[in-house]
Amino acid sequence: MLIKDETVNLGKDLKIKGFKCRFRIYSHNNQQIAIVSDLKSNKELLSDYIQAVIYSVCQKYNLTKEHYIWIDHSPKEKTIFDCFDRLIFDNVCAWKRLNYKQVNDLVGEVIIEETKSVN
User: Fold this and answer.
1) What's the CA gap between 117 and 119, in Å, rounded?
2) Distances from the Cα of 43 to the Cαs of 10, 15, 116, 119, in angstroms?
3) What is the structure's pLDDT at 117?
4) Rounded distance, CA 5 to CA 59, Å?
5) How far is C-alpha 58 from the chain's CA centre?
6) What is the pTM of this model?
7) Environment class of residue 36 by beta-carbon count within 10 Å: exposed (0-12), middle (13-18) or buried (19+)?
8) Alpha carbons 34 and 96: distance in angstroms, whole number
9) Which of 55, 84, 92, 104 has the highest count of CB atoms within 10 angstroms of its CB?
10) What are the DSSP E strand ranges found in the chain?
């Protein structure tokens, strides 16, 4: 179930003029899933700043990073296909590519069609 869906202006926090992202929170199977999506208008790639973006989003919405499954979404307007990467936080941040079915299963609804996703 979608709980939050809004565009967040992070330009001031990241010191990148006009930098924004789409931020969504889903709740499914007693899990909270946070999807941070890059926007076509950004000159910089969200993935390059993902840790700072997550920190800023957590501060803005009073979230605890560890209570969420974080997904970095690069839409087809920025890459060739929609790409979803689950972020794994250990000593360093690592990405695990998710296919369309994995993303849809995590959030409990269809948010991406098979033909738009890279496996």
Assistant:
1) 6
2) 13, 13, 22, 26
3) 45
4) 17
5) 13
6) 0.87
7) buried
8) 15
9) 84
10) 2-9, 20-28, 31-38, 69-74, 83-89, 93-98
